[in-house]
Amino acid sequence: MATESFERTAVVVEDDSDIRELLALTLSMIGFKIIETASGKEAIDLVQEHQPDLVTLDLNLPDLEGMEVCRQIRPVTDAYIVMITARVEEIERVVGLEIGADDFIIKPFSPREVRARVGAMFRRPRSMQEQGAPAEGAPEPAAAEQDGEAVVEHGALSVDIDGRVARLHGEELPLTRIEFDLLATLITGPRRVWTRESLLARVWGEGWTDDHHLVEVHIRNLRKKLGEDTRDPRYIKTVRGVGYRLVPIG
Q1: Helices (H) and strands (E) in the chain, counts
Q2: Closest alpha carbon to 162 in 140, 147, 141, 172
Q3: Which DSSP state fits 52?
Q4: Mean pLDDT per 10-residue interval, the chain, length 250 residues
Q5: Residue 3 lies inside a defined structural domain of this protein
Q6: Other CB atoms within 10 A of residue 71 CB
Q7: Considering 122, 154, 188, which residue would you say is the last residue of a domain?
Q8: For residues 40 and 200, what is the distance between their CA atoms, to the nearest angstrom?
Q9: How many domains is the chain partitioned into structurally?
Q10: Interior CA angle at 157 toward 221 and 159, to 5°?
Q11: Confidence (pTM)
């Protein structure tokens, strides 16, 4: 199989040389330039230096716990972070997602699974224009022009769709890619109730519709950054048994 020209960079963090080699080969075959390390501490430096598009991160590293590596690199990178683990406890998965991981891959895994999951992440639309119009019956959201780009407003919250910047009371919110995509989806369909399945399909792509934890954890993180009180939400309301919607203004 021919290797694609490098358009993206991946940092592969894995202390098992066989698994590291498998990941590196698999990702290079789908167009990634690979930077490898067996050290969690070195991984932090490599991510800051190279600003990769993807980080695969083993949780059981010899020098620094994978969770701690994730916690340290998330504030300095917009890369997708995929945790690689032999442990399958649900609490570990939830904690990993809460500190900024985008997905988990469980050992043992196949190259086909890695390609499929990474491919799904990078097929995620980067703007709402790519995702299509709001649902039929939904009103047009308030929009202004800011530096030539559409800005959608909802009370004190504004979202620059093309620029991928969200602001609350004029202050920029430090959102991850997924958090921004969730917020942009909700704010451009303000009266629609989004099921967890529809958010998975819209934000993560097809093939993820059974993994409700992904939505729940990232919505929880988004609410924290919005300063939400879930008992009296200002922006994101849970519709019990269904999903989420934007809280109406007024």
Answers
A1: 9, 13
A2: 147
A3: -
A4: 64 95 94 96 95 93 92 88 80 75 87 88 53 39 46 91 90 87 89 88 69 82 88 88 86
A5: no
A6: 16
A7: 122
A8: 30
A9: 2
A10: 85
A11: 0.61
CATH of the domain at 144: 1.10.10.10
Structure tokens at 210: 């059974």
Residue 88 in 3-state DSSP? Answer: coil
Q: What are phi and psi of 67, to 5 degrees?
A: -60, -40
CATH number at residue 66: 3.40.50.2300
3-class DSSP state of 245? strand
Same domain for 146 and 117: no
Q: Map tokens 């598009």 to a residue.
A: 53
Q: Is residue 224 a contact partner of residue 183, using CB atoms and an 8 Å limit?
A: no
Cα–Cα distance, 40 to 48 (Å, whole number)? 13
> What separation in angstroms does the CA of 9 have from each of 115, 153, 221, 226?
15, 34, 27, 31
235 within 8 A of 225, measured Cβ to Cβ: no
Q: Are residues 157 and 109 in the same domain?
A: no
Residue type, position 218, single letter: H
pLDDT of residue 88: 63
Last residue of a domain, one of 122, 150, 172: 122
Tell me which residue has tokens 């900024």: 100
DSSP, collapsed to helix, strand or coil, labels residue 122 as helix
- Residue 8 CB partners (closer than 8 Å, separation 6+): 31, 32, 33, 52, 53, 54, 122
Nearest-5° Cα angle at 212, 235 to 10: 95
